[in-house]
Amino acid sequence: MDFTKQLEELAINLFKIDAVKFGEFTTKSGMKTPVYFDLRVIVSYPAIMESISNLLYTSSLISLEYDHICGVPYTALPIATLLSVKANKSMLMRRKEAKSYGTKKLIEGHFSKNQKCCIVEDVVTSGSSVLETVNDLRKEGLVVEQAVIILDREQGGRQNLEKNKVTMMSLLTMSELIKILVDNNCITKEIGVEVMNYLNSTKAPSVKSSKESAVNRLNMPYEKRAEVSRNSIAKQLFTIMATKKTNLCISVDLTSSIQILNLLEKVGEHVCLVKTHVDIIEDFNTNFVEQLKQLATKFNFLLLEDRKFADIGNTVSLQYSKGVYKISEWADCVTVHSLPGEGILKALNSTSSDKNKGVLLLAEMSSEGNLITPDYTKATVRMAEKYPQLMTGFVCQNAVTFDDPGLVQLTPGVQLEKPKDNLGQVYNTPEKVIENGADVVVVGRGIVASKNPETEAVLYKNILWKSYSKRIMGKME
Q1: Is 444 annotated in some ligand binding site?
Q2: Which residue from 186, 181, 168, 75 is spatially nearest to 126, judged by alpha carbons?
């Protein structure tokens, strides 16, 4: 059977097993579509899997030069495995998130820098999934310039990949698939026309590579980022950092108000932000709050209450403004989980009449085994985009989490040496977190538990500022 006939037979079989569906669906990129391609079902049909791998190999892979094959997780992995065996080429596997144990690798398999890797994917709409894999492979020093795809939806994905120096070769385009299904009476001409009209009128959004998205933010000095900040607290924080030449935040995890105030007298001039956990202070009182605010004014730092609000909007509104702590009256900004949904931001946005307040949303965590997923992180960032005046930034670990240079990346879990404590807190070095996009770096026990907190604060401040200076000059190693 010639190639065209094999392709036609494959298209019809995909329709028969419900891998191609017609109706009303939403793609990963958020687009509404009258046709959906779901290749996950092919794992139950070995003959179809074999047909796809044979056709991809014959039409694309056989003519390419590459050292490794990597399937986009997770639907493309079975096809990538078959192609690896057929081509007798090494396969690499990209995890959607790095393990929190063992080697903590994001890319599994044996490879060397500058080797070539070919991407395998099932369907491309915007190309965002392919680019996520491309970016992670490139971070490991691999050369990634080619992708073989089963179906091109013809909605801009090919162009997005080309902008990021990836050439895409597809087995089928959506228009070719629709023609085969109409010609073989699998769908009506009316459905075919509807789908083609949709394809011609609806394009996926342009997708930047993560490196391109992050570069503007990471290369901009704090004073320039203050100019583009829409939240007043973010603007103040960037200005303080530029003025005091410090991006150090101290986490005062102490249970005595006197100990906290004494500590801040020693380290206040070296920090830009003080992070509190007010509910662990055993002798909390209004006098402590007044003295804390006086120290903030004296040493020019802001106050972050790490409350991690995570309840329904009405409850959070009360937790923020009422009760013993009356957080809204003294904290410049607070941390918030996005888990309850947008209502939590609506509540905080409407609770305080003082617009000089801010929120840091938890997009990622530094604790071992935490349950935050990449999809959760992306949804958190999308939720924040609706409240630009309220948002100070994100608590996160990676530069690619968000693009907006007017927002602050607050990164906790930093110590000079110790990799992990006995309760699952995983630490990074100061240099590493700055390289990973941190704007403000949180240090707790590394300073608080030291014999000389002021000396340690100065040490952290100098290392962090030096790393930041290298970053904005493009000299990070």
Answers
A1: yes
A2: 168
2 is an annotated ligand-binding site residue: no
Q: What is the CATH number of domain 3-201?
A: 3.40.50.2020
Would you call 266 a catalytic residue per the annotation?
Answer: no
Q: How many residues does the chain have?
A: 477
Q: Please write down the long-range contacts of 374-377, taking CB distance under 8 Å and 24 or more positions apart.
A: 374/96, 374/97, 376/338, 377/401
DSSP 204: P
Determine the pLDDT at residue 101.
47
Tell me which of 306, 332, 404, 439 is the catalytic residue.
Answer: 306
Catalytic residue among 163, 308, 378, 420: 308
3-state secondary structure of 239: helix
As a whole number, the mean pLDDT across the chain is 90
Q: Which of 311, 346, 403, 420 is catalytic?
A: 311
Is 311 one of the catalytic residues?
yes
Cβ neighbours of 419 (radius 10 Å): 10
CATH class of 219-473: alpha beta
pLDDT digits (tens, 9 = 90+) for 193-233: 999 998 888 887 776 554 555 557 899 999 999 999 999 99
- Is 253 annotated to bind ligand? yes
What is the DSSP pairing of strand 248-251 with strand 273-276? parallel
pLDDT digits (tens, 9 = 90+) for 26-35: 766 567 789 9
Beta-sheet pairing, 143-152 with 391-395: unpaired
> Distance between CA 244 and CA 228 in Å, rounded?
20
- Is 259 annotated as ligand-binding? no
Mean pLDDT over 319-324 rounds to 94
Domain ranges of the chain: 3-201, 219-473
* pLDDT score of 330 more than 50: yes
The HSE-up count of residue 384 (CA atoms within 13 Å, CB side) is 31
DSSP 28-87: TTS-EEEEEE-GGGGGG-HHHHHHHHHHHHHHTGGG---SEEEEPTTTTHHHHHHHHHHH
Confirm or deny that 153 is annotated as ligand binding.
no
Please indicate if the annotation marks 251 as binding a ligand.
Answer: no
Active site residue 403: no
Interval 72-81: pLDDT, tens: 998 999 999 9
